Amino acid sequence: MAHRRRWMSKRELLSGDAVAAFLGVSPGWARAGEALERIYSFADYSAAVGFVMRVALAAERRDHHPDMLLSWGKVRVSWSTHDAGGITGLDAEMATLCDRLHVG
Ligand SMILES: C[C@H](O)[C@H](O)[C@H]1CNC2=NC(N)=NC(=O)C2=N1
């Protein structure tokens, strides 16, 4: 499937420079070991739950899944490609998608 190959080809590790370039244009995101991480804030618990659900549905569509830690008014999202053992282009892309889902 063409669309699937497109996602798969992004499951290659990014260089340190490429990760730094991503972080330079992605406020809020940081490198946490072998993952990209950001903490989002929300007005209350249910707004945070709604965000987690939107991210989860997007993750299922792309067969690429983040770690998410839900707290009251707060969600910590962590993207890493387990198959590759680190941060890939797909992680950067999904992080950007999270930012769009956060703004609404
Ligand atoms: C079989 C399936 O495509 C793989 O297990 C996918 C599912 N979701 C995934 N999500 C993440 N974050 N990393 C992976 O390596 C990964 N692999």
Automatic annotation (TrEMBL):
Cited Pfam families: Pterin_4a
GO molecular function, one term: 4-alpha-hydroxytetrahydrobiopterin dehydratase activity
Gene3D superfamilies in alphabetical order: Transcriptional coactivator/pterin dehydratase
EC number: 4.2.1.96
Keyword Cytoplasm: no
Annotated SUPFAM superfamilies: PCD-like
Broadest EC class assigned to this enzyme: lyase
Transmembrane domains' residue ranges: none
Swiss-Prot/TrEMBL keywords: Lyase
UniProt catalytic activity: (4aS,6R)-4a-hydroxy-L-erythro-5,6,7,8-tetrahydrobiopterin = (6R)-L-erythro-6,7-dihydrobiopterin + H2O
Top-level lineage group: Bacteria
One GO-annotated biological process of the protein: tetrahydrobiopterin biosynthetic process
PANTHER family hit by this protein: PTERIN-4-ALPHA-CARBINOLAMINE DEHYDRATASE (PTHR12599:SF0)
Record family assignment: Belongs to the pterin-4-alpha-carbinolamine dehydratase family.
The protein's name: Putative pterin-4-alpha-carbinolamine dehydratase
Species per Swiss-Prot/TrEMBL record: Chondromyces apiculatus DSM 436
